[in-house]
Amino acid sequence: MFKGTAVLASAWLVLGLTFVSCGADEAGQDAQEITDDIQQEVVGELGFTANGEDFVRSGFVSNDGWHITFRHLYVTITDVTAYQTDPPYDPHSGSEIIGDVMVELNGVFTVDLAEGDDNAEPILLGILEDVPAGHYNAISWSMIPCEEGPSKGYSVYIDAQAEKGNQSYNVSFGFETGYRYSAGEFVGDTRKGFVTPGESSELEMTFHFDHIFGDIDQPADCDLNMMAIGFEPFAALMQEGTVQENLASLSEKLPEETYTKLLEVLCTLGHTGEGHCYCTIIQ
Amino acid sequence: MHDNTVKGFLFTAVLFLITAPLFGHGARVTWEVLSDSVYISASFDDGQPMNGAQVTVFSEAAPSVPYLIGMTDDSGEFSFMPDKEESLNWDVQVRKAGHGDIVHISLAEDSATDTEQCGLSTLQIVLMSVCIVWGFIGTAFFFASKREKYNAHT
Question: What pTM was estimated for this model as a whole?
Fold first, then answer.
């Protein structure tokens, strides 16, 4: 009887130890997670910039041959948030970003993307100090109507000159709709968003205005030029050398197909470098 | 006045129709791992292949420094053989004419399976199996010995 009980006890002891050892491994994993949390407390700096790229600062020729130079190009940006996501965010997923780490730049920023020459740096909106270290591989922001200043009432305000042959127009477009852009990792010459202790990193909100007017330097049948409206539909609205419109007036004056296309194109303005965004209209 | 009302309604209606989430246009990059190679296929959103696009490969070990730079072929495709000793996680960026995308490739399916088994090594799994088997055999011996004693009594 004693021998049988000893066998049973040893068998159950071994079973118990087996499961405890597995549990201990899980405890080890917990300890690793805590270490990871401590690692997260290592901090660095993260800057946020806005960039209309060279062709906004130096002008460009639309897909239908209009040379457009921008005196001012105001956009109003807010709700700027950077994320560390795993798995990386995919804007094609059609969903909002869910981040493991999330930092927000507070404030509303109206910037003139036409400011500076060809070599100007992107416009710095602000720097967050002491953000957790890691790779900020997603960003979201909103573009909302400005509350004061020359672009009051508009999320995007274009003040430009459009010329073709002997035609020259003062152009003023205001777009009153708000947009929410969600992007994954910056796509460009360098990778961005790696925050390391004592080092500054940055993320960029990039705006592709060639999507509205097209680009004569690209093939006529390329994705960009097939999507763009060009400038001719706007030139047709000319009054005494001036085109001054907003979305409400354009909805009345442009052909319905062109106006719908314009709304779609405005949703594609936001990028991070060359990486595109998931966009929703918010206002 | 009536005309303006109708146009205002149309403006609102079109804006309403477009309030569904939209995607910016751009590039789509897909990947596949076959044998020891990673195969990349890149196209624009309209389906045209991104031929002659710049491809930059990064390893997780040095994520800011290009591991390899190349170019897609006429079909928008590119392949490379990652060094698994260096990293099991790779990022590949494809860019052309102001459009681009980056994809993240994990070669670590095997280690993912290990994780589901609470990260045990092969030796641990063998030992656990032996212990579990011994646990059941020991229990069986206990009840078998009790039955023998019961039969002996009867």
Answer: 0.76
